[in-house]
Amino acid sequence: MRILPILLSLALASPVAAQQVPCGGGFNGFVRGLVDEAVSKGHDRATAQRFFAGVQQSAAVLKADRAQGIFQSGFIEFSRKLISQNRINTGRAKAQQWNSVFDRIEREYGISRGVLLAFWAFETDYGAFQGNFNTLNALVTLSHDCRRPELFRPQIFAALTLYEHGDFDPATTSGAWAGEIGMVQMLPEDILTNGVDGDGDGHVLLKTSVPDALMSGAKMLSHLGWRPNEPWLQEVVLPDDLDWSQTGVQAVKSVRDWDSLGVKPRSGRFLRSDLSGSIIIPQGRKGPAFLAYPNFNVYFEWNQSFTYVLTAGYFATRLEGAQVYSAGNPEPGLSGQQMKQLQQRLSAMGYDVGDIDGILGAKTRDAVRDVQQRLGLPADAWPTPALLARL
């Protein structure tokens, strides 16, 4: 479960910054400082020295950190890339294979199996690709690099605690370049807080134990605020005269109010008419449309990419039998370079769009919606070449 990308969606270091001596000083001295800090936190010195004895700085981790990508694709393109029939078939087979574990999760946490299956699929392809970066090397390297020590340094001492429990081997524990471990990709601190011994062997081993991984992922979701036995996403059909400025995650109405405004489920009935929700139209009023229930907001607690989150939530519904969404006929969007031009123009107009990164993030969407209203256009927060030309 990739909690970390929430915090990693930052501006990449400049080439000049990448060549500077890390603020952590010499690497060996930095590691000695970690041992001293571990002792100050109550760890045994000899244990800490064994834990850090073989740690090495990793150039591969720094390269991966500098080159991290950000989702620039639209929802339709991105979801079609990630969701294949093979992934759906495998997910349904895994649901059967581990049915007793999912039953336990549903009893104890009220979390539907499709939700965890979707993350299991997207994070590691159901455990097949968990990453081969040495976790301790990654965490120490990124802490020594000093760009985000507040992020990584606490994870080092959490890993030390896991080592003391017999659940972390500094020589062999591996995972993603940013320190996440296991089938659902959790950081050491999150494993300490939410790790569950799902198979009863006395250890929490997210790399090799499916019950441990799924139960830990479920506890994490519960810890983040998942409301038991409630839905998260449902495809809907929208009326042509909807007030488009009321769409987006920031606009919440009761499901009954949406119903009275002409919003209808694409099939069947509303999953919970007694709840509230937001209308999400990722590619404007002519594209796909979804009703996001309160649990959908929990997805943003582990990844802030709107496109990734919506795709994960939608895939979870597909794994539980939902039909393929109606793509509609959305207006053409902007290229990455055009999006940067739009952001520059919006920024010059006084809008806070965050970084000029070519990404249609929440701040850019809000600015687009406001400009559309000012220009008398449908305020669906979907920027088009025509809007760019108007600006």
Automatic annotation (TrEMBL):
UniProt-listed PANTHER family:
LYTIC MUREIN TRANSGLYCOSYLASE, MEMBRANE-BOUND LYTIC MUREIN TRANSGLYCOSYLASE B
Question: InterPro entries under this entry?
Answer: Lysozyme-like_dom_sf, MltB-like, MltB_2, Peptidoglycan-bd-like, PGBD-like_sf, PGBDSf, SLT_2
Organism annotation: Mesobacterium hydrothermale
Transglycosylase SLT domain sequence ranges = 27-316
Ordered alphabetically, the record's keywords are: Signal
Signal sequence extent: 1-18
Query: What protein name is recorded for this chain?
Result: Lytic murein transglycosylase
Query: According to its UniProt record, what is one Pfam family this protein matches?
Result: SLT_2
Task: Tell me which domain of life the UniProt entry assigns to the organism this sequence originates from.
Answer: Bacteria
Residue ranges annotated for the Peptidoglycan binding-like domain, each copy included: 335-391
